[in-house]
Fold Choline dehydrogenase.
Amino acid sequence: MNDNTFDYIIVGGGTAGSLLANRLSADASRRVLLLEAGKKDDYHWVHIPVGYLYCIGNPRTDWLYQTEPAEGLNGRSLRYPRGKVLGGCSSINGMIYMRGQSRDYDQWAQITGNDEWRWDQTLPYFKLHEDHYKGANEFHGAKGSKSELLAPNDLPKGSYLHTLRGRVAGGEWRIEKQRLRWDVLDAFAQAAQQAGIPATDDFNRGDNEGVSYFEVNQKNGWRWNTAKAFLRPTCYARPNFELWNKAQVAKLIIETQADGSKRCTGVQVWSGVEMVEVKATREVILSAGSIGSVQILQLSGIGPADLLKSKGVEVTHDLPGVGANLQDHLQIRSVYKVKGTKTLNTMANSLLGKAMIGLEFAMKRTGPMSMAPSQLGAFTKSDPSQPHANIQYHVQPLSLDAFGEPLHSFPAITASVCNLNPTSRGSVQIKTSRFEDAPAIAPNYLATDADRKVAADSLRVTRSIMEQPAMKPFQPEEFKPGVQYQTDEELAKLAGDIASTIFHPVGTTRMGRDDDPMAVVNARLQVRGVAGLRVVDAGVMPTITSGNTNSPTLMIAEKAAQWIAQDAEAAA
């Protein structure tokens, strides 16, 4: 931490930050600093797929957040994992590759007034970094495939935008088939089809309705996080790139310009020993996630004025949308006891079973240790009147009371179902003016009648699937929530008792039109009213995507990298 002036400072070495560091440091004339509050990703459980069980709730890799007690969860609070390690949440998440639905992005374009967010304008940016095991086609990129994005001829060689002309895409973000299967999950997929959910071979073509095994971000049986994909060896070999880990940003440096406008010129970083001031000549880019970026903004005096004053923070820029609009996917975890088949409950509850699981992974990189938290997925409608698939299943050959708790002693499966497009909105707010103190996270689950109705209906869809002929050989018995609960009111209340997050917080720094008072960033992700500052992470999503959120966050970062480079070229 000697030379403390850079062109770009990226705050957060997670999903978005890792890709941004790769793209922006490709221009050798720009000095790029990547700041990560956690340690490097050299913890072995980060790389073994089942290691999420040992990373969530572990201070080595997790911020250890808890939500505020929620009325919709009958007063419960939830563990709220966020990656505190290089690679961020991509180092501890479920590894599921999912883009959502085309309508999600068309809706963003409408909300922001910018057609660059439409599905047809975002698809090339998904493909740009994708290395799909099936190879390149209309919907997927792969190592060695050509980019569809062309840059103007007159750009200087060496600039990031110049590399887009005829760029060889793919080869970074690896997507593979899972390396295991389960008889009981195959039967669930058949039962889903018998219940009217079509089979699919690809969830990522813009309409994800159907049932199939998930594709995952793995390579040869190992987790493939964004640190592997985008930072090493590429960035580490660049002399214009620096990574500081165990470096937590306490606040932004905001200066008032001669004309009275505000500009972000750097950050204050806690090194673990001292506070260090770092300057950015071009931009500071917040990629600390839907929780972390909000906390940094609010501690820096950017946010709702009344909140900031109440916490003793001087108001730099009154921006009421900072920390509002929190959305998340709440999964309702129905558990069914089964018979006549193996599940992870029975395999992992004996020393011999654990030894066999470990040996299979050591020899073949297959089996339960290569497992994503959820293996089988399904997207369908909570009731026939819905215009599109509005619920998602994560189906697992195991059961437990909660992540981090022991597996049940009896054979069972869990059919978790979530509302893809919740109408409930929550918030993230600092509790104190100290950067060391976690903020208050209040997702406000099941706060609306619409969300409670979808919760009740989705439990009925689960029951319908489990009653199909394909499941009968396994004699499924509903353990949770229990067949005695039938009415909408009963099911919604029980959903509050057994539901948990799938860890998809978005929307807390949402983008919008210039005349939208609650928009935090504009359509190109620049913070409204503060020059030299952008937010590039899942917080900018105005509405949550219809599926897992990690890969859409990468797409957002890919687009942002191009915009940042365009702005630099225009200013040169």
